[in-house]
Amino acid sequence: MAALSSKKRVGIIGYGHLGQFLSVELRKNQNFEICKIWNRTEDEKEHVLPLTKLDEENLKCCDLVIEVAHPDIVHQYASTILQYCNLFVGSPTALANQKTYDGIKDLVKKHNRSVFVPAGAFWGSMDIQKMADLNIIKGLTVTMIKHPNSLKVTGPLVELNNKAKQSDNPVILYDGPVRNLCSMAPNNVNTMAGAAVAAHTLGFDLVRAKLIADPQLVNWHIVEVEVIGENGFRTTTRRENPAAAGAVTGSVTYFSFLASVKETLYRPPGIHLC
User: Fold this and answer.
1) If DSSP codes are grouped into helix, strand and coil, which group holds residue 176?
2) pLDDT at 5
3) Which GO terms describe its biological process (predicted)?
4) What confidence category does residue 3 fall into, taking pLDDT thresholds of 50, 70 and 90?
């Protein structure tokens, strides 16, 4: 990748495993400069600011803010961030909230900003987006299979996930529209939310999500994608992503996020899957 004439100044929200990984890797890249980091827990030694400092004073130095914390950050701060810079939505389950998504769309137009949604573990995302652009995608199902210890779920899914922990067999936690699942597993189904953004003619209500807890799946996260098009077209993919026991994010997905951030260098204003 050729060096740009000036570095892109980046802020990162969320300093867990993924945030720290991006901080380290982007500092190695001549096209990026880390100028701010925010986290729920402040760390003065690491120059990590608290979320209360997500304000004009600290945002105006950024060209891009990368959110890799929690969808609540997008709900609460997207409108503030987009006044001053572009936004990378690392928790796209936030976009299942139609008020949040519509607000972001309006701000993108008002401020001539770019918003980026990473493909993550969603294999074939660009092909699916092209099918949606041509209005020839008729159905999309995304199935995610993880060990129950890797799932952080709420509501009625908690009991089902606990059942999986006490079993030797897979348990289907959910089968239905992506939109309803996003609020019950906000940290686990960002891949599905990305699918709903890519397949925009189907969206969060017509993309089907299946979430399965498999106690035998100790070292992997599996993502299966089934696409249906016109005239009998159908294709399926299965991605087996190495993941440590109990990990929310598979190891290969870290590098997919990094590649997505690098793509932000060359995208015009608008909302982009990358």
Assistant:
1) strand
2) 55
3) NAD+ biosynthetic process
4) low
Which of 15, 5, 18, 16 minimizes the C-alpha distance to 261?
18
Residue 271 to residue 274: CA distance in whole angstroms:
10
Q: Give the pLDDT confidence of 125-144 residue by residue, as tens digits.
A: 999 999 999 999 999 999 99
Instruction: Evaluate the CA torsion angle 245, 249, 252, 254 in order and state its sign.
Output: negative
Tell whether domain 125-248 is in CATH 3.20.20.60: no
pLDDT > 90 fraction of the chain, expressed in percent and rounded: 84
- CATH for 8-121+253-273 (3.40.980.10, 3.40.50.720, 3.40.50.2300, 3.30.750.24): 3.40.50.720
Strand partners, 226: 141, 236
Token pair belonging to 98 = 């139609």
Q: What's the mean pLDDT in 60-83?
A: 97
Q: What are the backbone dihedrals phi and psi of residue 27, each rounded to the nearest 5 degrees, phi first?
A: -65, -25
The per-residue pLDDT for range 173-200, each reduced to its tens digit, is 999 999 999 999 999 999 999 999 999 9
Rounded to the nearest 10 degrees, the angle between the axes of helix 125-133 and helix 190-198 is: 30
Query: Residue with structure tokens 């249906």?
Result: 228
User: What whole-number distance in Å separates Cα of residue 213 and Cα of residue 55?
Assistant: 40
Rg (alpha carbons) of the chain, rounded to whole number: 18
Quickly count: other Cβ atoms within 10 Å of residue 78's Cβ.
22
Alpha carbon distance 253, 203 (integer Å):
23
The tens digit of pLDDT for each residue in 87-124 reads: 999 999 999 999 999 999 999 999 999 999 998 768 88
| C-alpha–C-alpha distance, residues 224 and 191, integer Å | 11
